[in-house]
């Protein structure tokens, strides 16, 4: 088990990509802190982790990922429960779409808080123990929308593009302590968020996808696992696109 004796924290672990990442890490031996708002959904993730690996250690923490004190507490609880923190996955996110001339300021603030600030806070809290132990891997969940933009998603695109700059800056800051920072940019993945897409927008994206299909959360979790594994020991500051061939 490649992550035996290691510990991870995954935000947005209630469902979708976050749940798939948590299950993947549990299957490979990691103790996992599952962070999110919905306790019942997080308990379902715990059950899925234990189905993947009966002996897995899971810690459930709830609260607002966009609150710095809450995130600091999550990391402190992880260290208390598992004695270390090796992997931090900033997966919490949401999309409040709308043309910029109609987008309300509060929608922009919420999108930036959940998608960008929450990741910043997790990186800040996780970097300290990782630097102290001289090793760790941080993965930020961006999007191809943050790379290429999309009409009606200016706030979402800005928040996801911000993660790319954060990734590169932190990779340079933390590299001397053997802490690696990378980003993943998914395309159309079958999640609760993409279920709400208008049919026309969904069909347009599928037409742009070389593989001709939407991805599954497990298509993303496998890439995150790679970035945290020893196979990626010389990979930092990079963005891996997982989109079936849209951005080329």
Your description of this structure?
The protein is of the alpha/beta class and 248 residues long. 49% of the residues lie in helices and 15% in strands. The protein has nine helices and seven strands, in the order βαβαβαβαβααβαααβ. Strands 3-2-1-4-5-6-7 form a seven-stranded parallel β-sheet, sandwiched between helices. Strand 2 (31-36), helix 2 and strand 3 form a beta-alpha-beta unit. The longest helix has 29 residues, at 105-133. It is globular, with a radius of gyration of 17 Å. The two termini are 34 Å apart. The model has no long low-confidence stretch (mean pLDDT 95).
Write the layout of secondary structure elements.
Blueprint: E1 7-11, H1 16-27, E2 31-36, H2 39-52, E3 58-62, H3 68-82, E4 87-90, H4 105-133, E5 136-141, H5 145-148, H6 154-174, E6 179-186, H7 192-195, H8 199-208, H9 217-228, E7 239-242
Parallel strand pairs: 1-2, 1-4, 2-3, 4-5, 5-6, 6-7
Helix pairs in contact: 1-2, 1-9, 3-4, 4-6
Percent of residues in beta strands: 15-25%
Mean pLDDT: 95
Q: Biggest β-sheet: count, sense, barrel?
A: 7 strands, parallel
State the end-to-end CA separation.
34 Å
Q: Strand order, biggest sheet? A: 3-2-1-4-5-6-7
Coarse structural class? alpha/beta
Strand element count: 7
Portion in helices? 40-55%
Shape: globular
What is the ordering of alpha helices and beta strands? EHEHEHEHEHHEHHHE
């Amino acid at each position: 088990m490649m992550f035996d004796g290691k510990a991870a924290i995954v935000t947005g672990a209630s469902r979708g990509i976050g749940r798939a990442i948590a299950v993947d890490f549990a299957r490979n031996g990691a103790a996992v802190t599952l962070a999110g708002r919905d306790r019942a959904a997080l308990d379902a993730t715990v059950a899925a982790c234990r189905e993947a690996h009966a002996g897995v250690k899971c810690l459930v923490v709830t609260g607002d990922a966009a609150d710095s004190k809450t995130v600091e507490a999550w990391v402190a609880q992880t260290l208390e429960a598992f004695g270390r923190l090796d992997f931090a996955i900033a997966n919490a996110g949401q999309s409040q779409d709308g043309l910029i001339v109609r987008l309300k300021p509060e929608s922009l603030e919420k999108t930036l808080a959940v998608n960008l600030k929450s990741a910043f806070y997790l990186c800040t809290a996780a970097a300290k123990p990782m630097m102290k132990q001289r090793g760790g891997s941080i993965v930020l969940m961006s999007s191809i929308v943050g790379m290429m933009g999309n009409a009606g998603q200016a706030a979402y695109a800005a928040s996801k593009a911000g993660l790319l700059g954060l990734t590169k800056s932190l990779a340079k800051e933390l590299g001397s302590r053997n802490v690696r920072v990378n980003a993943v940019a998914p395309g159309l993945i079958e999640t609760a968020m993409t279920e709400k897409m208008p049919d026309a927008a969904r069909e347009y994206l599928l037409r742009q996808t070389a593989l001709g299909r939407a991805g599954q959360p497990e298509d993303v979790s496998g890439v995150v696992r790679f970035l945290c594994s020893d196979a990626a020991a010389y990979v930092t500051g990079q963005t891996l696109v997982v989109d079936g061939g849209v951005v080329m």
